[in-house]
Specification:
The complex is a heterodimer of chains A (415) and B (480). Chain A has 415 residues and is an alpha/beta fold. Chain A has seven helices and 19 strands. Classes of the chains: A alpha/beta (415), B alpha/beta (480).
Chain lengths: 415, 480
């Protein structure tokens, strides 16, 4: 793999036309990654999902070179109908379109900032990989007091031109005081066997509101990793919703730093898996100051030999009195082969806190099925009804009604 | 002054902190094959036992000390320890209690375990382990009548080699983790109990561990086998003198329950926790594991952990037999600079297996408490159930309480439920108690005892009383 990495890296550098400083930074990251390699089971955070093995199994040999010079045609058929929205379109890892047509142009700034390096407190080798190979990094800045009138949909499209490739993406968002932003991440992949490595960084200033929805719905054979870092100042609110379903492997990490008083973070997620898909959500909520709040709800429905993992951590440091932290994960296993692993973790150093977590997993309740069948539903119908109800609970947590309806339609949940 | 106050004053400092001035035989300092041979020789062990030890030692040399745990500790120099220390008078084993060195008996009297009187009054059979050797076992005759074997493990190796050979290392193999393997190589003594088929042990069996000599590690090994349809309740207590240095205690406990058998294992661990500034104290790195080998068997662990500078142990149940049951009840209290990383593992392998975990953690002062547990339901363990509840109570904002459960469910017909909460003693509760005339410390004691009640009531009566007192004492000075 090392030779491949170095060879591809040289090509990328040749292609990208970077400053000397940039090249140095990228080289440094590359060497870090070569030292560490892909994360494996020996690392605590990857205990339940050995990425090294997963890549070997699903992809085999991976190449890291992508030709970012030629443009791809934007296929408008993938765009969401019936909802006016702003767009960012990634095709095969290349930004093809940034379009804020519904917004005031002077309130949003798009900054090209390829030079700044990605630094996160809980580093793993994938951030080094991302730093070494990302072509362009944009920062989207929402100015003070501006609330976007329409949501932003980020389309991730891969077409059949690429195969066994590693694609690295990165986006930074800064939401200034009193601003708000809604984002939907949509994956549409026609390609197979690629490894997507996505890093988002959100910086929420005072009173800012972020609503972040990730929808991985369409069936595909890709391996994906997405890291979301959210920094929150006073009174800010972040809401993250993850629908994890389509890819062969998908790991979502959400790292929230609640730095300002009265800031709050909500993370809700659904795993709806079939075949031998393996998905994971890992959350770390750091309560760093007084009066912060977090709420997490993760529900899974697992069929065939699929596997879901939830690792959630609530950290409360000694200054963070009056913290309210809650975490619940529930799983329904529909098949003998399916598997659910959880590690709900609390790490608490302050005494005046209210923290709790719960985790339950098991099969569909026989008594409920019996109840429904005795009222004339078939087994299949009762099963669907129960699963719908189980998942609806999470979807109802979405605070934006437009997007709630969109997502309901996507997964076909009826009320 | 009422009695309770007197008692508390009496116990305020670590009352077991005295050391006994007694002549010792020690193995040469350090860890090598010679020392292992020395231990084996002095114990007059057969060759297979020596081979068992040497095999473990070979393995030990390849292992690295683990460092994933939360409480970190300064590196232990394993070459700077004595691996064997015994009172000189024990070189030729006394035949009865009358021949035991009076100083030793005195020690146990001070600890509240008068071996002689106990033999007559209490109705609990005690095996007392002093540093590296077992000094006395009471109530032998009564037990022999029922066919129960209860003796030091060194004696069992000689007298019942077939049982020891068959079961020793069957639950904790010599190839296990660092400390367990170290124990397999150098263990000195411990208790052995065998309950024959269909026998309900008429009394509680009990071991009392005491570390006396300085610079020694205590490595005891306990092996309990409950044959088909039998029942035994086993108690374990521990104390050590106050010393400035940290002492290592790495014991292995193996339990085996065959068809329809039940083992109840209770521990009140009160090793010296170190002084108020966190100096000294015992490192309690213990491996405890029970195997529900037969159908319908049951193993239940109850522990009250109040002592030790660092506690690092996970009493576990391997539920191999169909319909077997594993239980774990724990109270862990840490104060001052104590650290505890404790919990359990429930490995469900058989069908219809059930497990229950109740863990209560209380941290005060500058201490740190972690519950770390694993519930693993394998794909063959149909219709299995687990219920876990872990609650933590924090007193003050310098301490920490953490919960790290690992939950793995590979079977769709099995259910796992886990819940955990962390909170502090509410002002209202305190106010209520104080209004009714309790002082703040008494009020806290009362509330904490209520918090722990679920676990305390699992303990045998004699232990429950002691444990309840301990809970109060351990939290002395943590309020206000």
């Amino acid at each position: 793999m090392k030779e491949q990495l170095q060879k591809d890296f040289k090509n990328i550098i040749k292609n990208l036309n970077l400053s000397q400083k940039d090249i140095e930074i990228k080289k440094f990251s590359l060497n870090n990654f070569i030292d560490k390699g892909f994360p494996n089971r020996k690392e605590e955070d990857w205990k339940f999902s050995d990425l090294n093995q997963i890549i070997k199994k699903n992809i085999g040999e991976l190449s890291f070179y992508c030709d970012y010079t030629s443009t791809n045609k934007v296929d408008t058929s993938v765009f969401v109908d019936g909802l006016e929205h702003n767009k960012i379109v990634f095709i095969n890892g290349r930004i093809e379109k940034i379009d804020f047509e519904y917004e005031k142009k002077n309130q949003i700034e798009i900054i090209d900032q390829s030079e700044t390096i990605n630094k996160f407190s809980n580093n793993n080798s994938l951030s080094d990989l991302n730093n070494a190979f990302t072509s362009k990094c944009f920062k989207i800045l929402v100015k003070k007091g501006y609330q976007l009138s329409k949501p932003l949909i980020i389309y991730h499209t891969c077409n059949s031109k690429i195969w066994s490739k590693n694609i690295n993406l990165r986006l930074d968002f800064e939401l200034n005081k009193d601003s708000s932003l809604r984002i939907i991440d949509l994956f549409n992949e026609a390609s197979e066997k690629n490894f997507l490595n996505i890093f988002y960084n959100f910086d929420l200033k005072e009173n800012a509101v972020l609503k972040n929805y990730k929808v991985d719905r369409s069936e595909n054979k890709n391996v994906k990793y997405s890291f979301n870092n959210i920094e929150q100042e006073k009174n800010s609110i972040s809401e993250t919703f993850i629908l994890s379903s389509g890819s062969n492997f998908y790991k979502n990490e959400v790292n929230c730093n609640l730095k300002g008083k009265y800031s709050s973070a909500f993370v809700n997620g659904i795993f709806s898996l079939k075949n031998d898909k393996h998905h994971e959500i890992r959350t770390i909520i750091n309560h760093l100051t007084e009066n912060t709040k977090s709420y997490q709800l993760i529900k899974s429905v697992l069929e065939d030999s699929s596997k879901a993992v939830y690792q959630g951590k609530i950290f409360v440091n000694s200054q963070a009195q009056k913290t309210d932290g809650y975490q619940l994960s529930k799983a329904i296993l529909l098949n003998k082969e399916s598997e659910f692993n959880a590690k709900p973790e609390l790490e608490i150093y302050a005494d005046d806190v209210k923290c709790s977590h719960g985790s339950a997993s098991g099969s569909l309740n026989d008594a409920s099925i019996f109840y429904l069948m005795s009222r004339g539903l078939s087994y299949q119908q009762s099963r669907e009804l129960l699963i719908n109800g189980f998942l609806l609970d999470v979807v109802e947590k979405i605070t934006d009604s437009e997007i709630k309806n969109l997502i309901k339609n996507m997964i076909g949940i009826k009320e | 002054m009422d009695n309770r106050q007197k008692e508390i004053d009496n116990l305020k400092d670590y009352k077991y902190g005295f050391s006994t001035d007694i002549e010792n035989i020690k193995a040469p300092k350090g860890l090598n094959e010679e020392v292992i041979k020395f231990i084996s020789k002095i114990k007059k062990e057969p060759e297979w036992m020596l081979n068992f030890r040497l095999k473990a030692f070979e393995r030990f040399k390849l292992l690295k000390e683990p460092n994933w745990q939360k409480p970190k500790y300064p590196k232990i120099d394993y070459q700077d320890l004595y691996y064997y220390s015994a009172p000189k008078s024990m070189k030729n084993k006394p035949k009865s209690l009358d021949e035991i060195d009076p100083k030793l008996l005195e020690t146990y009297k001070k600890l509240g375990i008068p071996l002689q009187e106990q033999a007559r009054l209490n109705g609990i059979a005690v095996d007392a382990v002093f540093d590296s050797v077992s000094v006395a076992t009471t109530f032998r005759e009564e037990l022999t009548k029922h066919g129960i074997i209860f003796c030091p493990i060194s004696e069992a190796i000689q007298k019942h080699p077939e049982l020891v050979k068959k079961y020793l290392g069957s639950v904790i193999p010599t190839t296990d983790h660092f400390f367990a393997t170290l124990n397999s190589a150098v263990f000195t003594d411990g208790s052995f109990a065998y309950i024959p088929e269909g026998v309900r042990c008429p009394m509680e069996l009990s071991t009392y561990f005491r570390i006396n000599a300085s610079n020694t590690g205590q490595f005891e090994r306990t092996l309990i086998i409950a044959d088909k349809g039998s029942y035994v309740s086993y108690l374990e207590g521990c104390t050590a003198p106050m010393r400035d240095e940290n002492q290592l205690h790495a014991a292995n406990v193996e339990l085996i329950a065959l068809d329809d058998a039940e083992i109840k294992y209770s521990t009140v661990q009160n090793w010296y926790p170190g002084d108020k500034d966190g100096k000294g104290g015992i490192y309690n790195f213990v491996t405890k594991r029970g195997l529900c080998k037969g159908k319908n068997s049951k193993i239940s662990w109850t522990q009250v952990e109040t002592g030790s500078a660092i506690t690092w142990k996970y009493p576990s149940c391997i539920l191999k037999g169909d319909n077997s049951v594993g239980e774990f009840y724990s109270i862990a209290i840490t104060n001052n600079f104590q650290k505890a990383d404790t919990g359990t593992k429930m490995i469900h392998l058989g069908k219809n297996t059930k497990s229950k975990i109740i863990s209560k953690g209380i941290s005060a002062g500058n201490s740190d408490m972690t519950y770390r547990g694993l519930v693993d339901i394998s794909s063959k363990a149909q219709n299995s159930n687990n219920y876990t509840q872990c609650d933590s109570l924090l007193m003050g904002n310098k301490c920490g309480a953490h919960t790290v459960p690992y939950i793995r469910n590979k079977n769709s017909e099995s259910n796992i439920a886990h819940e955990a909460t962390t909170s502090k003693i509410s002002e209202e509760q305190l106010h209520y108690c104080q209004q009714r005339g309790l002082n703040p410390e008494e009020a806290v004691g009362l509330i904490v005892n209520g918090f722990c009640k679920e676990v305390l009531q699992q303990l045998p009566m004699e232990f429950a009383v002691e444990a309840q007192k301990l809970v109060g004492i351990s939290l002395e000075g943590s309020v206000g």
